[in-house]
Amino acid sequence: MVVVMGYVLTQFIERGLSEIAGEGYYVERDRLRHAAYGALETTLAVLADFREIEGGLQSPAQGWGDPIGFAGVEIGKGLQVTVSFEDESAKLPLNSLDEGTLYLLFDEMGITPEDSLLLTNSLLDWIDEDDDTRIEGAESDEYSFREIPHRAANRPIRNLDELAVIEGFDLYFFDEDGRPNALFDAFAQMVSPYGGSRLNANAASAMTLRAAASVGDAQLEAIADYLAGADRKPGTSDDRYFASTDELLEVIVEMPAGLTLGVDISVLSILIQVKEGDSVFELKAVLSLDGSGIPSVQTGTGQAASSAPLSQVSRSTASTTAIEYPFVFLELTEDVSHNEMAHVPLEEEEETPKT
C-alpha cells in the first residue's frame, strides 16, 4: 500500500507541476505582452510629439532614439525593456524595383552576372500577375515539380521570408537548413517590402545609394562625414542629420540622376523587446508616417486600411475606446524571433483587427 500510494502521489505531483508550468507560461507571456504594448504606446506618443514639434521625423539623432528614457516612465517593475528602430524608407521598395535596378543591386552585392539574371527574373516572375515565365525566371509550372509543390504568388512580396521558396534565392540566400545567410542579411539591409515615397538620405547605406543611382564615392563620403558629426564617429552623441533637402544639397551639391533623395522617414519599423530572466516577449510594429507604404496584408481593393486602434488590437488593454493614431499600422507582429508570428490583418475598416 505504501509503494502504491507513493507511486500515485509521485504521478500526481509530476502532472500538477507540468500543468502549473504550462499555466504559468501563459500568465507570464500575457504580463510581458501587456508591458510590450505599453512600451509601444509610449513610443508612439514620443514620436508623435517630436513630429509635431520638429515638423517631421528624420533620424533618431533628433532625440527620440530612447523613447522610454525620454518619456521618463517605468514599463513594469523589474522588466528590461528595449526599443529599437529601423528606417524602412532608407531602403529600396522591393515590389516596385525594375529589372535594371535589381540587376545593379545584385551586382553591387558581388553576385555573378549569370546568378544576378536568375535572381532578377525569378523575383519579377514571383511578383507580377501573369504566368509568363521570363528567361531564367520561374512561374507556377516550374514550382509544381519541386519536392514540395507550390505556386508563384503573383502579388507583391509581404515578407522577406518568402524569398526562401523563390527560385535561386532558396539556394543563394539560405543555407541547407533553410536559415538566412550573409547574402540574405545584406539584401535585407537594402530593400524593404513595405515601400516608401523616397530614400531617406539620413539612413540609406552607401551600397543602397550606389545600387539605386550609382551615387559617386565623393557624394557618399560627403554624406557620411556630415552625419558622423565633428568627431567623425557614427553612433555617438555628436551625430547630425539632414533636416531639409536644402541642407542635403549643400553637402552633395546636386541630386544624383534618376534618384530623388529625401530627408524624412516615411515608413518606420519599431521592435520592442521585454525581458525578465529567461522570459522574452517581442513586438514589432511597422508604421507609415505619411500614408505611403504597402501593408503586409491588404484589403480586397489593394489599399491599406485606416489606422488600426491599438486598444482593439491588444487584449490586455483595459479601455475599449478607439484611439485615433497619427500613424497607419502596416504590420503588427508578436514574438518576432520565436517563429510564432501573428500578423494583425489589415482587413476591412469596420472589422476589428485580430492577433
In short:
By secondary structure, the chain is an alpha/beta fold.
Q: Would you mind describing this structure in some detail?
A:
By secondary structure, the chain is α/β, with parallel strands linked by helices. The chain is 37% helix and 12% strand. It has 11 helices and 8 strands. It has helices at residues 2-54, 67-71, 99-108, 113-127, 140-143, 169-172, 182-188, 206-213, 217-228, 245-252, 310-313, and strands at residues 80-87, 92-93, 191-192, 199-200, 261-262, 267-276, 279-288, 328-334. The strands form 3 sheets. A 4-stranded antiparallel β-sheet has the order 1-6-7-8. Helix 3 crosses helix 4 and helix 3 (99-108) runs antiparallel to helix 8. The chain is globular.
Features:
alpha/beta, 355 residues, two-stranded parallel sheet, four-stranded antiparallel β-sheet, 37% helix
Strand segment tally? 8
Question: In what order do the strands lie side by side in the largest sheet?
Answer: 1-6-7-8
Please estimate the helix content: 25-40%
Secondary-structure element sequence?
Answer: HHEEHHHHHEEHHHEEEHE
Mean of pLDDT: 82
Distance between the termini: 51 Å
Task: Note poorly predicted spans.
Answer: 298-309, 311-320, 338-355
Shape: globular
Strand content: 5-15%
Radius of gyration: 24 Å
* Helical/strand content category: alpha/beta
Figure out the total of helices: 11
Main sheet record: 4 strands, antiparallel
Oligomer: single chain
